[in-house]
Amino acid sequence: MLTTEMVPFTGIPADIPAINELAIRDQWVAWKYSFDQNGKPTKIPVCARSGFNASHSDQKTWCSFNEAVQFALNRKLAGVGYVLTDDDEYTGIDLDKCIDEDGLIEPWAQEIIDLAETYAEYSPSGHGIRMFIKGKIDRSIGSNKSRVEMYRASRYLTITGKHAHGTPNVVREAPETLRRLLARVSEFRAPADYSFNPASLPNHTHLTTSLDEIKDLLSEIDPDCPYDDWLKAMMAVHGMTNGSAAGFAMVNNWSAGGSKYSGVREIENKWRSFKGHGVGAGTLATISKTYGADLSEIARRHNSYPEFDAEEAARISAMILAAWEKQEREKSGTRQVLEQEDGTLTDAETGEVIEQSVNVPAKIEQPISYPPGLVGSIAQWIVATARRPQPELAIGAALAIVGTVAGRQFAGPTRSGTHLYVLGLAPTGKGKDHPLQQISRIMAAAKLSHHVGPSEFISMPAVVKFLMRKPLSICPMDEFGGFMKRINSRRASGFESSISKILRTMWSSSFAPYMTPEWASTPSEIIHSPSITIFGASTPEQFYSSMEGASLEDGTLNRFLLVNGRASVSECDPAVDPSVVPDSIVDGLRRIYFRSGELASGHRNDPSADPSTSNQLLVLPWCVDGAHAAYTGFSKEIERLVDKDIDASAFYARTVEMALRIATIVAIGRLEDEQIRRGDVEYGIEVSYRSGKFMAEGAADYMADNENQANAQKIMRAIKARNGRASQRTIMQSLKNSIRPRDLREILQAMCDAGQLTRWEVKPPTGPSMFWYQIE
Fold first, then answer.
1. pLDDT for 486-497, tens place per residue?
2. Which of 421, 406, 422, 531 is nearest to 470 (CA)?
3. Is the pTM of this model over 0.85?
4. What secondary structure letter does DSSP report for 123?
5. Which residues 6+ apart lie within 8 Å of 684 measured at CB?
C-alpha cells in the first residue's frame, strides 16, 4: 500500500544530477504542512534564514539548497522546495492525483512518464508526479479537471528526490511531453453548452466594501452562467490596475473552479490581447473612466454573451474593486489611526472609535486550582510559608514530593510511574527558590532525606553512580537553566552532553530495568525501576535560551512539566512558620511510603530490587465514574492536534502520559480508595496541557536557530511586555539599540508580512505620525 503519512523531512539523495543542477541556484525554501478548517493540508513555504513564511515573489526569503535542507532537518519540517523564476531556464510540471493508494499510476500519467524525456519524481503525498523541463513555456497553464499544472515562474515546487523509475536523472528538453500535456489541458477546457439567463442578474447599483455582500450578490446569479470566467477577468483587471501580484492571487483563491493559480497568466495575456476590442470605444471609455478600470476583458465576455449587460458587469466589478482595495489595506498590516486629545484612537477613514487607550489589557491565564488531598495540602503549606507566594510552583513541588514518596511502589493503570521532571519558571527575585528549600525540609521532616539528591550533576558517570546508590530520589535543582546550558553546549564534553540522554531514558523507564553504560574499569550493571524526580527552578530566559533547537528534536523539552510562576508577586510575611512541617503532611507521606510495609520500603533504595515482579507494586485501577473515558478522550484530542501540526509533537508528545502520572499522584495523595477518579484525570489533563502550551509559547519567544529569529523574538517579547502593542520608538528603546534601525524596520516588516504583527500609523494631535505594532 502507498503511504501518505506526513513525516518529517529526512533529506535529499546526493546522487541525483537533476537536483544538483537546481541546487546551484539560491532559489530554495523550506516548507511545512498547515491545515484549513476542513482538515485539508496545504504546503506553506518557510524562509530558512528568518523562520518566517517565505514568498515566491520575494527573493529575500529564498536561500541556498544546503541552507534550506539543513533548516528543514533541524526544525523537523516537511521538506524543501525550488522557486521558479523568469530568469532561470526551467518549467515545472505537476501531474496531480494520478497515483492510487496501491501505488498504481493512472494510464494517462504513465504514458507521460514512459516518454522518459526528462527528470520526474514522486510528490510528498505519493499521489502525484513532479517533473522539470529545460526551457520556458510561454505562460503558466493548467486545470483541476485535467490534473495537469505547468509553471514558468512565480511558483515554488516541493522537491522530494524520490526519483520516478524509468525517467532520466537529469533535466532535459521534452517537446513530446509538452505537446501531450497541452493537448490534455485543451481537451478538458472544451467549451460547455451553457444556458445563460440574463434576467437572473441582480440590479445592484450601489457600491459596497463588504466581501460577504459581494459573495451574496454573486450567489444570486444563475449557477449555470459561466461567471467564474468573467469574475476572474474582472478581478485580474483590478490586480493589474493596482500593480499588485496579490490581486492576481486573490482572483484564483476567490473565484469558483480552477486550481489555486490556474488561469491568472492566461487572463492577463487575454486582457492584453483583447484590449480595445469588444463594445464600442466610446462606451468602453465611459465605463473605464467611471469605474477606474480597463474593462476590455468584460467587453470580450459581453461579445460572447450579447444579452449580458456590460455596465452591470462594471458595477459588480467596481464593488469587487472596492472590497479588494479594503482587503489589501488590511492585509498590509497598516491602518491609519488618529489619536484624539483624550487619548481615544479613531479610524482615519470612518471616524470609528478603535479603543479608549493605547494600552490593551494583557490576557490573564486562570490560576491552577489546588488538587484535593495531600498534594493540595503540601502546596498550600508551601504558599503559606513563602514571602513571595508562587502557588503554581508550590503545586509543582507538591506533585514532585508525593510522586517521589510513591515511586517504585505505585503505578498508574497503564503501569506508568510517578516520577516527574518539574520545572518552575519565574523571574529573578520572585520567590522561585522557596519551593526548592521546602522540598528538602518536608522530606527531612518525614525522615526521608536519604532520597534527596544533589542540586546538580557534573557528568554522566555521576548520574549513573547516583542512580546505583539511590534509584528512588528527588533532586531540587536551582539555576536549572544554567545546568541545561552547560550540558547542551557545543563545547560540552562527551560525559556532560550524555547527561540529557540519561535523563530522557530515566523519564521513560517506569518499572523497566536499566542497563548502565560501561566505561574504563566500571562494568555495566542493572538498575531495576529507576525513579528519579527533578524539581528545577529557572528564569524563562535562562531556561529556553539553554535548550536551543536540539531539545525539540530529541524530546528533552516535552519530558518536563512546566509550571509558570507569576511575574509580579508582592512580598508579605509568611502566614505560618516555614520551619515547622505540619504533622498531617508528615503522616500522609509516611503512610504512602510504608504502604507495602517495612520490608518493601527497605527495597526502595536497592537498585537490585525489582518491584515489578513482587507483590509490593500496587497498580491503581480506573474508577467506574468515567475516568478511563476522560483519559482516552484526551489522548484522541492530542493525537488530532499532533496530526494537524507536526511541530506540535515537540511540545505535546508526552502530554497524555504526563496527565496520567499527575492523576495517579493526586489519587495516591487522597489516601482513600486507591483508584483513579475522573476528577484526578481532569486535573492531570489541565496541568499537563498547560505545560505543553507553555512550552510552545516559550519556544516561540526564546528558542532561535539564527540571529534573525532571535532578533524577531526579542521584538515580540518587548511588545508583549507592553500588553501587546508598542511604538517603533519604544521597541527600539527597550532593545537598548541592540538591533540597528534599518534591521529593525526590515524585521518588523517581515513580521507584519508573516501575520505576526499588525502595523498602525498613529497621528497624534501634534507632531509627526508614529508607527505602532500590535501582536495578532
1. 888 878 888 888
2. 531
3. no
4. -
5. 658, 659, 660, 661, 662, 663, 664, 666
